[in-house]
TrEMBL record:
Residues 41-135 form the Transglycosylase SLT domain. Pfam families: SLT. It comes from Diplocloster agilis. It comes from the Bacteria. This is Transglycosylase SLT domain-containing protein.
């Protein structure tokens, strides 16, 4: 195949690839702006509930990697809230759409606040957030902290250092 034919075949493909990549960059910037907006919201709600905002961010990273549309079984959204277990909480808070990032975060922080009011140990709180509460308590009493709890607590500490705390 001569060079002219090769260029004629390759050029449209390159243009299509370029067109496909350009919106991804725009979406990436938009997603980052949304994340910053959510961080401001997280700080505000966390302060109201006396919860470390970096802990909330670490949970969001672990649960959904900041994807508000994330679904894992019956767990939905940024903080992977299960509406079955949190229906009363959702009604009390006026949160009907767990794919809405702000509603999801509000329910998640409210739940964390409840867990911290029951026990101040971050590892137990994180294990209860992530698994059956009875199982979490048994593991915690045995000194067997879950990988989830250890990694989220460590990431929360990293984020605190990054934020100068």
């Amino acid at each position: 195949m001569n060079n002219l034919k090769r260029k004629l075949l390759v050029t449209p493909v390159l243009l299509l690839l370029l067109a496909a990549v350009m919106p991804m960059n725009i979406l990436g910037n938009e997603a980052e702006e949304n994340r910053e907006s959510l961080r401001t919201y997280i700080e505000s709600i966390s302060e109201e509930y006396n919860i470390c905002p970096e802990l909330v961010e670490a949970i969001i990273e672990a649960e959904s990697n900041w994807n508000p549309q994330a679904v894992n079984g019956q767990c939905i959204g940024l903080m992977q809230i299960n509406s079955y277990w949190h229906q009363d909480r959702m009604e009390r808070l006026g949160a009907a759409d767990l794919t809405d990032p702000r509603q999801n975060i509000l329910v998640g922080i409210d739940y964390l606040s409840q867990l911290f009011s029951e026990n101040e140990d971050i590892y137990l709180v994180l294990m209860k957030y992530n698994m059956c509460q009875d199982t979490a308590y048994q593991k915690w009493r045995a000194g067997d902290y879950s990988n989830y709890a250890v990694s989220v607590a460590a990431r929360s500490s990293e984020l605190e250092r990054e934020h100068g705390k």
